[in-house]
C-alpha cells in the first residue's frame, strides 16, 4: 500500500485523511472513495478504486487505533516511523498535521464500534422504466422501478446498491416505508 500512497498527491491524501477523521467523528457517513479516485485519475494519476479503498481502510484503522490508545501526535509519528519505514515522507507529514489538528476530537466509543458493524444509509434514488422488447419477446411493455441505495459500509466506504422491482413489489416497498414513517412519528 505504501507504493500506492506514494502515487497520491499530498493534497488528495490530506483530503482523504480529513474525510476519514470526519467519518470517525460521525460528521459524515463515510468516505466517497469512488468520487475521490475519479478526481485523482482526472488529475493524471493512475490509481484504481480498490487500491484507494485499501489505503482508506489502512488510514482509518491507524486513526481509530491511535484514538483508542490516546496517542499524541509524536507517539503516532514515532510508531509510524518504527512500524512502516516504506511510508512516503509526504504521507507522514499529512498524517502528523491532520492528527495534530483533529486527532483529539476522535472518539472511538464502544457504542460507536458496535453500531459500525452494519452499514449506514446515505441516499436513495429511483427511476421508472418500461421494457419495450427483448431478443425473445417482441412486445413486453413491462414497467419496473430501479432503486439505487447509497450506503456507507462499516469502514466508511460509500457504495451503491441497485435493484429492480415490479410495480406490485414497489407498491409493497412503499407501503412498508409508510408503516415505518408512522411508527417513527410515535417515537
TrEMBL record:
Domain COMM: 120-187
Domain of life (superkingdom): Eukaryota
Molecular functions (GO terms): NF-kappaB binding
InterPro entries: COMM, COMMD4/6/7/8
Pfam families named among the record's database cross-references: COMM_domain
Record-stated family: Belongs to the COMM domain-containing protein 6 family.
Function as written in the Swiss-Prot or TrEMBL entry: Scaffold protein in the commander complex that is essential for endosomal recycling of transmembrane cargos; the commander complex is composed of the CCC subcomplex and the retriever subcomplex. May modulate activity of cullin-RING E3 ubiquitin ligase (CRL) complexes. Down-regulates activation of NF-kappa-B. Inhibits TNF-induced NFKB1 activation.
Protein name: COMM domain-containing protein 6
Gene: Commd6
Amino acid at each position: 500500500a505504501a507504493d500506492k500512497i506514494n502515487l497520491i498527491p499530498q493534497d488528495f491524501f490530506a483530503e482523504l485523511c480529513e474525510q476519514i477523521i470526519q467519518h470517525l467523528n460521525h460528521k459524515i457517513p463515510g468516505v466517497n472513495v469512488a468520487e475521490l479516485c475519479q478526481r485523482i485519475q482526472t488529475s493524471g494519476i493512475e490509481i484504481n478504486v480498490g487500491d484507494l479503498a485499501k489505503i482508506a481502510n489502512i488510514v482509518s484503522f491507524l486513526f481509530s487505533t491511535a484514538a483508542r490508545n490516546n496517542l499524541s501526535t509524536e507517539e503516532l509519528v514515532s510508531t509510524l516511523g518504527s512500524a512502516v519505514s516504506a511510508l512516503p515522507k509526504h504521507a507522514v507529514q499529512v498524517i502528523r498535521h491532520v492528527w495534530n489538528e483533529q486527532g483529539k476530537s476522535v472518539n472511538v466509543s464502544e457504542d460507536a464500534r458496535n453500531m459500525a458493524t452494519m452499514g449506514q444509509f446515505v441516499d436513495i434514488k429511483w427511476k421508472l422504466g418500461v421494457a419495450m422488447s427483448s431478443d425473445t419477446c417482441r412486445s413486453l411493455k413491462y414497467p419496473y422501478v430501479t432503486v439505487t441505495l447509497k450506503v456507507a459500509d462499516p469502514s466508511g466506504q460509500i457504495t451503491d446498491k441497485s435493484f429492480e422491482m415490479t410495480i406490485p413489489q414497489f407498491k409493497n416497498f412503499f407501503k412498508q416505508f409508510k408503516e415505518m414513517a408512522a411508527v417513527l412519528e410515535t417515537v
